[in-house]
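User: I'm new to structure prediction. If I give you an amino acid sequence, what do you actually give back? Let's try with this one:
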Amino acid sequence: MRRFFASSIVKAVLAASLIVAIAAGVSGCGPGKPVTPETGGGAGNKVKLNGAGSTFVFPMMSKWSALYDSVKPGAQVNYQSIGSGGGIRQVIAKTVDFGATDGPMTDEQLQEAKKPVLHIPVVMGAVVPAYYLPGNPAIRFSGPMLADIFLGKITKWNDPALAALNPGVKLPDRQIVVVHRADGSGTTYIWVDYLAKVSAEWKAKVGVATSVNWPVGLGGKGNEGVAGQIKRTPGSLGYVELVYALQNKITFGAVKNPAGQYIKGSAASVSAAGAGAANTIPADLRVSITNAPGKGAYPVSGFAWLLVYAGQENQKRGQALTDFLWWVIHDGQKAVKPLDYARLPEQVVKLAEGKIKEIRVSKANGR
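Assistant: Good question. You get back a string of structure tokens that encode the predicted 3D arrangement of the chain. For your 367 residues, that looks like this:
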């Protein structure tokens, strides 16, 4: 829903394909040698890279595109916001150079890809419970309560359980209209991963995936679609990535964390959630940070990853892709906070560097 975006950057990207210029140096790597970040570029080295996937990270990608274009003119990078599920499918089909997802690929999906796919974490963000009620009251939620709403067990805004968490707040005698994603989504993955951790019933009946069978509610395509549904539907409650709630001026609530605090999504509270994750991240970097312990941690937080094949068949494109990834996890992190994402912890940057250095190319330059 393009008209709901106030940001000129996001408007521009929604109006056309996301194109970003990046430099591509030609490394002289032979078979089996790792690609390492290089500078350079020029007219003779122009490469076109295509990416697709996460709407969660789309505003960040658009900002990165503008910045990278100014500092490293050279090749073109086209990114399409089609949802994490679509990004994963296109990576498996090898129709893109990289995918973007907020829910890591499953073991089955990695096997389907046939060749090793790397998960490169690039940013952290919050998924928030966004709603539309007259007067924009500030509402607090617990995890089990959100699960019960999305299970269809709590159906009214003035339900006694919701009222008990919000003393002094005038809640209307109005039906809750649940809004969820209609497409395969990493934002959904983060949301349902959290619900499964706080509700045994949710885990048993619905489970965790980028796409689930929703017990109730209306579907919207992309974070844009869900934000649009919420904004035009009085009484609605849905989930969107934080920047979409802020850009669309949609009210969102605080969620109770394991420390008993009611915390709103923000760059600081997401950073608090990710602070302890660096010491427990597995070797493949597929990790969940929902319902993280710790003071000030926002419980519905998650990573976004770029997905790339470890083996690159085209030397020039492999080098260009590596250069872009390297820039994103270093200089690109300076642009994260203004869009209310959280930058990668330094320990995670080091882990991401190691993954990028695993990218290898063949001798063939291809097209």
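You can read the tokens as a compact description of the fold. Here is one thing that stands out. Residues 1-43 have pLDDT under 50 and may be disordered.
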